[in-house]
Design a protein that fits this description.
It contains 17 helices and 15 strands. The protein is an alpha/beta fold. The strands form four sheets. A seven-stranded mixed β-sheet has the order 4-10-9-8-7-5-6, sandwiched between helices. It has a four-stranded antiparallel β-sheet with strand order 11-12-15-14. It has a two-stranded parallel sheet with strand order 1-13. It binds D-serine.
Length: 428
Amino acid sequence: MLTKAYLCYSKKTMNKQSLQNFDPQIKEAINKELRRQEEGLEMIPSENFVSPAVLEALGSVLTNKYSEGYPGKRYYGGCENIDIVEQLAIDRAKQIFGAEHVNVQPLSGAPANIAVYFALLSPGDNILGMDLSHGGHLTHGHPVTHMTKVFNFIRYKTNAEGKIDLDNLRQMAIEHKPKLILVGYSAYSREIEYEKIKAIADEVGAMTMADIAHIAGLIAGGQMNNPVPIFDVVTTTTHKTLRGPRGGMIMCKEKFAKQIDKSVFPGFQGGPHENNIAGKAIAFKEALEPEFREYAIQIKKNAKVLEHQFDSMGYKLMFGGTDNHLLLIDVTTKGVTGSEAEKALDKAGITVNKNMIPDDPRSPMDPSGIRLGTPALTTRGFKEAEMEIVAGMIDRAITNFQNDEELEKIRLEVKELTAKFPLYPELQ
Ligand code: DSN
């Protein structure tokens, strides 16, 4: 029982008011975001909804603790509970992906990738990575990133059929002799042939890295090829299809373990965010449940419904369709730019992102395409029937992009639909 004296003392040293009382502006913004997530259709393919258990860990006292180092080898005292958390996260990730070694400390995907580059390479080394407009990622060598000042990125592309051109990749590898061949994409919708890429890398003496951020949940659920047993290093974020908290992770062969760990800490990062690592551990436990496989299967089924619907409505699908959770669609054939489509869909309560298409003649701020995906809606419980309705709503919003009355009508329909699939009733 708290004594009066204690309450007086603690009031002086720590704010004990509720968030609502102390900072109603922040509380209101959080409430509004909750409402936006509840009432809208979240279709950005890199977003998802974490479980209440993961949310609980994120808001736990683990955020108070410094724990530089690794389980059993820390630079701070008092890490006995932190060690349990971090070791559980590591062991569960190993079990999911069949990894020899796992580092769960990267703060997100970009820091994970940068830590790998510095672990494996020397400044000036060549890296072969996918062009951004063909589905690659900023951290895979886009000229706007700092890493291009340190390493020499050479960028490959997809072919006219929208597939990774392995013959061209091989020719480029022979010509440029990269130290690292990098695969794994953020707007590419097709399966990746890791064995064949590994064979090319072996031929030229390159190391292999896969960034599976987008598809980690599909791999965990057994629905896409797993590069972890094949490639030297695999990075991922934990908050996309894997459905954990915002964060990153590196998996590698045991022979790279020491250099990867040293590169993450002390090479690049300081204290790990252990509340986040606890969230990762919980999400990994969820990914080991049989229901997670069902979720991964449904993500792909839902994406196939969108593929079929948009194809039959005359949209141009990049890469010829999808094998995973996302679609990249050229909307200019409908007389709309990617930016106009994104804005119209926003007004209709449907969140997607504008996106470059391969060799896009337009600019990144107003590109030709939109990118959309099914993970978040699948988490909500949407199945094929709902996805058909959603495809129809998206088409209506795009074709009526200047008609605010119609967009408002769609928004109300979206609200009615999402009300049948409540997300966090316990937070209302
Ligand atoms: N920004 C993420 C995405 O939306 O794909 C990748 O880092």
